[in-house]
Amino acid sequence: MGVVSVDMANFDQEVLKSDKLVLIDFYADWCGPCKSLAPVLEKFATDKAANVKVVKINVDQAPALAEAFGVRSIPTLVTMKDGQAIMGAVGNLPYKTLENFVEQSLQTAAAANVNNNKPPKGPTP
After folding, report:
1. C-alpha–C-alpha distance, residues 110 and 99, integer Å
2. Is residue 34 among the annotated active site residues?
3. Tens digits of per-residue pLDDT, 51-87?
4. What's the chain look like in SS3?
5. Residue 78 — φ and ψ, nearest 5°?
6. I want to staple 56 with a disulfide (CB 3.0 to 4.6 A). Which of 25, 35, 36, 77 is the partner?
7. Annotated catalytic residue within 16, 23, 31, 102
8. Active-site residue, 67 included
């Protein structure tokens, strides 16, 4: 499926209502580390499409979303499940680190008993 571009218009549908774990990449077009991370995220999104949805949010085009998540530097990665933020990381992560980050997020979500019976609780910018 690849990485999906998200903004205010489709955040609710693509992120909050996703039935999978969502990995959000907060980035900007002018950011060097963000550009380096992009192909890694594309490969990750393709490889892990069965279990993880990868989306990207341009902080210049959706500043309210970046602010709602407390993004201070980019790239910032955030995992969400059932409308709830689980974990965050900053920087250009290698593929293996991304795998570990997502695996930890899935374990944290399971341990917290995050499930589809809870109403979505995401940022409301």
Report:
1. 17
2. yes
3. 999 999 999 999 999 999 999 999 999 999 999 999 9
4. CCCEECCCCCHHHHHHCCCCEEEEEEECCCCHHHHHHHHHHHHHHHHCCCCEEEEEEECCCCHHHHHHCCCCCCCEEEEEECCEEEEEEECCCCHHHHHHHHHHHHHHHHHCCCCCCCCCCCCCC
5. -135, 135
6. 25
7. 31
8. no
Identify the residue whose tokens are 């609780």: 121
Active-site residue (options: 34, 54, 62, 77):
34
Query: What is the pTM (predicted TM-score) of this model?
Result: 0.88
- The position carrying tokens 């210049």 is 60
Residues 6+ apart with CB under 8 A from 111: none
Q: Tell me the two tokens of residue 60.
A: 């210049």
